[in-house]
Amino acid sequence: MHCSPVLAVLGILLASATMAAASPVVDGALRAEEEVTLVVHTAADCPICKAWRESSSGLAVAQQLPRESPPVHVVFIERARLQGSETEALYPAQLLPLFRARQEKYQLSPPVPLFELVRGERVISRHAGLRGWSEGTLPEVRQIQGKPAPSTAGR
Known about the structure:
The protein has helices spanning 5-22, 47-54, 59-64, 96-104, 129-145, and strands spanning 25-26, 29-30, 36-43, 73-79, 114-119, 122-128. By secondary structure, the chain is α+β, with helices and mostly antiparallel strands.
């Protein structure tokens, strides 16, 4: 069967439109249902949290994420003490379902630092500790953004 050039072009356009519709990134921005929030759980007296905050690849990178394209919202939830619990007052309104789910499971003292990627009301990724950030959460954020993951060479 011989295909006309017009039909071939229409086929290519249809394939391109289908791929664009399936992609969560449109014009450098995530669609509302695909937006991701990075939730960073820390404790004020946590020495590992302090190391993450002071690291050039830790807090400084997380604070930059909302300014990148596509942006990743970042929410910091810092409880007063490592041995303490998170409270509802620490959570912004859009993350209250996450707090309530933790409350129902008696998980208000998660290990810290803890990094969660949240889409809607669903946690799609959870990693703890410094390696959890550098080898889990940050590469996943870069993948969501369609960017290359940071190099871990030299480890």
